[in-house]
Amino acid sequence: MPVDFSLICATHCKLREATEQGQFRSDLYYRINGLTVQFPALRERTDFDLLTQRLLLDLNPQRSIHVAADLLESLRQHPWPGNLRQYASALRTASAMLEPHEVCIDWPHLSDDLLQELRAPVQPVTLLSATQAAQSQPVESVQSLQELSHIAMRQALAACDGNVSQAARQLGISRQTLYRISKRGSFTSLKGTF
């Protein structure tokens, strides 16, 4: 019996690398590999607030529910390794915790696990630790204070798994300052190695 269908796959793994390392079958990779679309992480999306409103509307079509401003900012900065599905699940849980008369999701409505993740202290990157990182390199390789600041930026971004907002908070600067400094340096991307 002939079958004609289209297959759409989603993964958080880098299948090409997994195939090259023998962790994913190459014949299967080449059969399913067609158009590859990469979506940005939720914390990198510019439409996070609109996305939140849409998810809440889909979850609660009869109620006009919103998220408290300070909580929304924390949710925006969260890494969300499960991306949209994880975020939608968190909003679904928080919505279920609302009393019938409540329309604002706030901190008490969150699951204990998410609450703990959001309130985990951020470990600051100090100038001393950046200096120590610079000292581990040959003296001639660290040429300026600017280069030392770039080392601190790399270290902060690595400690924050590429989360620019969190790294900026650790360094005590704004996201815009972090972007501006990175444009002056040899950074190719704030998300990857630079």
From TrEMBL:
GO annotation terms (biological process): regulation of DNA-templated transcription
UniProt xrefs under InterPro entries: AAA_lid_NorR, Gly_radical, Homeodomain-like_sf, HTH_Fis, P-loop_NTPase, Sigma_54_int
GO molecular function: ATP binding; catalytic activity; sequence-specific DNA binding
Domain Sigma-54 factor interaction: 1-96
Alphabetical keyword list: ATP-binding, Nucleotide-binding, Organic radical, Transcription, Transcription regulation
One Pfam family, short name: Sigma54_activat
Keyword check for DNA-binding: no
PROSITE patterns recorded: GLY_RADICAL_2, SIGMA54_INTERACT_4
Location of the Glycine radical domain: 1-59
Keyword Cytoplasm belongs to the record: no
Cross-referenced PANTHER family: TRANSCRIPTIONAL REGULATORY PROTEIN
Name of the protein described by the UniProt record: Acetoin catabolism regulatory protein
Gene (name only): acoR_13
